[in-house]
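haha ok so turns out i had the wrong file open the whole time. this is the CORRECT one, sorry everyone. sequence first:
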Amino acid sequence: MGTTRGSRALLSKRILNNVISSLESRCTVLENPNSVNRMRMSSVTLIENALRKLLLPTSPASSPEVAESLEACSSDSTAEIRELFDSNSDEMRSNTEVDNERAEDKIPALEEDEFADGQLRRKMQGTLLPRLPLTPGKTLLSLYIEKIGLKDAGLIDPYLTISVRDYLGVAMTAIQDTPVASLIKDNFIIFNVAVEVQKCIEYLPSGVAVFFELKHFKPKKHKKSLKCYGFLERDEIKPGAAVLELYQKPIDYRRRKLKLLTVKALYLHLHLTLHTM
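then structure:
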């Protein structure tokens, strides 16, 4: 029973994340009619119909018939939404971390050489996205990541994962990875890379923060690992230089239990630029 409830909760979360992504895409179309985004009003209607099936009475356990109906409708709703997402562009599907996972599940088996080439491209290019089109009265944020200071900076293939999260830790935009750092010098890992936040500042609610997770490769364990992280809060978004403190893992997206990585003066160095029309 616990597993069923957990699976249902995970399914609902994935669906709602996809709904948010779709509605944001529709907003982009309304704000910028020339946008390449193809999210139509008919697609929004389809989402509404699917959600009506999903949001049945919240106490299915009291009635086996209702429970079966809920499970069936949830399955139907998922199918409808997936059909909708499959008909839209890859750009919309990449708007959330969940979408990326679903897209990866659909990738056919690759030859070993092709997989290695893809890994190399991801390592060299990252998954950074271009700046959104400017719209009147709205502000976009560019983050230029200069360097990060560590007392043990000699990491293998270090890179940063950037995400915008609300006070509950839920990702609000596409999660992006930088390319592997271009240089390691003394106690600094040099990035010199720009990251474009995929949402207008006016749409970022109170309590939101931009997270920067420093990850690297551990050859002995054959996996990637989180080294440390920092974050930029909503009221800290101002043009100019910014210096962020670094915290120990595990990461706490809710920012409740924070422990500094070091007492030394080693930080994440950024430069913020605001764009308006």
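The helical segments are 2-31, 41-54, 64-87, 90-93, 97-105, 112-125.
again sry for the mixup
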